[in-house]
Amino acid sequence: GAPFFHFHDGALHVEQVPVAALAREHGTPLFVYSQAALSAALAAYQAGFEGRNVSIHYAVKANSNLSILRFFAQQGCGFDIVSEGELERALAAGATPEKIVFSGVGKTRHEMRVALGYQIGCFNIESEAELEVLNEVAQSLNVRAPISLRVNPDVDAQTHPYISTGLKNNKFGIAHERALAVFQRAAQLPHIAVKGIDCHIGSQITTEAPYLDALDRVLDLVDAVEAAGIPLSHIDCGGGLGIQYQDEKPPVASDLWAKMFARADARGYGERHFMVEPGRSLVGNAGICLTEVLYLKPGEEKHFCIVDAAMNDLPRPAMYQAYHTITGVQEAATQNLASAPLYDVVGPVCESGDWLGRDRHLHLQQGDLLAVYSAGAYSMSMASNYNTRPRAVELLVDGSHVRVVRQRDTLAQMMQAEQLL
Ligand code: LLP
């Protein structure tokens, strides 16, 4: 997005702040987020929901920094969580418990107790066994647990197999054929309150068709479940909308939702309470990671550019062969790239899988700064201390204002939980 990350006087800026100054002050690797980009991404959803009954539940796993969560809480969003840790983060950031939904195939009894104690809005149930356990836990607390059933619509989201979740052979959700029977069971359980239905078919989805197909399949079930005398007060369509990393052209949220509501209207469901659980599409293109070129290593077949960020900071290339745009931070270095040497941009971690970009044309010198784009989602939240590398600093920029929203791990922190023999 040009307005948030852009060249001005030849230098890369985040909003009004030149990134080179940020790297000098805070060191690298360094994540920098743009608050205006977060606002714009959220506005694209809100525009599509104008005049509709929709609630947005930001998927905490995409970027769980407390300041990012607080931003979304202040904008009125709810949250989609998958663990006690994410629940406590959301609450610490100011979330309203009623607007929290709890997803995930492996909720523990302890997590259920904690979430019931806070009176969260809904448990998205992923299996028949989980439903029975939640009923027991709710009974032990003498409460009724609000639930939806996550159904598996068996549609192909046409995304990377590791992040596709709506096909029959995935571990997620309840099979379409079983769904009615499980709703009937849920309706009989004394400590369960059936609230809704939900689905989530995958992530980084870049076409509309899987969403519309999934909606049709879910609405078929709503017809059947309500015909069986079980009213559903909400329909949760999950997250999954993709972003542009390279040359993808994902639908904008407002266009996608115009089509979704046209479909829902045609089937008489346009007035229902819809819920969404977007993660990546709200934060992914709101962040970059700045990294310094440590060494250039010319080779026979190809050259290596060794940077100070690695797979522990930016795990997506190593895990999914994901593409992230990488550029210099001086505009001059981004011109005439066809004539520039070809590099693999790699990190210092001791694994061949530790790469951030392959076969990239770059004009480079030792000591240069590089920007890795689309680093707002599933980067810091998936970062690790592998190779006992500290997780990076995170900054949130708002206009010309810069806030440190996470400090770099210290060496003491990384060893703090361990004991010497
Ligand atoms: N709801 C549920 C139930 C989910 O499992 C997910 C993501 C979301 C919502 C948010 O999906 P999003 O809007 O962000 O696509 N680490 C992978 C992505 C894993 C997504 C897991 N579930 C990556 O870096 O591509």
Automatic annotation (TrEMBL):
Q: Name one Pfam family in it.
A: Orn_Arg_deC_N
Transmembrane regions: none
Q: Which residues bind pyridoxal 5'-phosphate?
A: G240, E277, P278, G279, R280, Y378
Q: Which residues carry this modification: N6-(pyridoxal phosphate)lysine?
A: K61
EC number of this enzyme: 4.1.1.20
Biological process according to GO: lysine biosynthetic process via diaminopimelate
Positions contributing to substrate binding: R280, R316, Y320, E351, Y378
Top-rank taxon? Bacteria
GO MF, one example: diaminopimelate decarboxylase activity
Identify the catalytic residues.
Answer: C350 (proton donor)
Pathway listed for it is:
Amino-acid biosynthesis; L-lysine biosynthesis via DAP pathway; L-lysine from DL-2,6-diaminopimelate: step 1/1
Domain (Orn/DAP/Arg decarboxylase 2 N-terminal) spans 40-283
Instruction: Report the catalytic activity.
Output: meso-2,6-diaminopimelate + H(+) = L-lysine + CO2
Which keywords fit this entry according to its UniProt record? Amino-acid biosynthesis, Decarboxylase, Lyase, Lysine biosynthesis, Pyridoxal phosphate
So which cofactors does this thing need? pyridoxal 5'-phosphate
Orn/DAP/Arg decarboxylase 2 C-terminal domain spans which residues?
34-376
Q: Which family does it belong to?
A: Belongs to the Orn/Lys/Arg decarboxylase class-II family. LysA subfamily.
**What is this protein's function?**
Specifically catalyzes the decarboxylation of meso-diaminopimelate (meso-DAP) to L-lysine.
Record's subunit section: Homodimer.
- What name is this protein filed under? Diaminopimelate decarboxylase
Species, as recorded: Lampropedia aestuarii
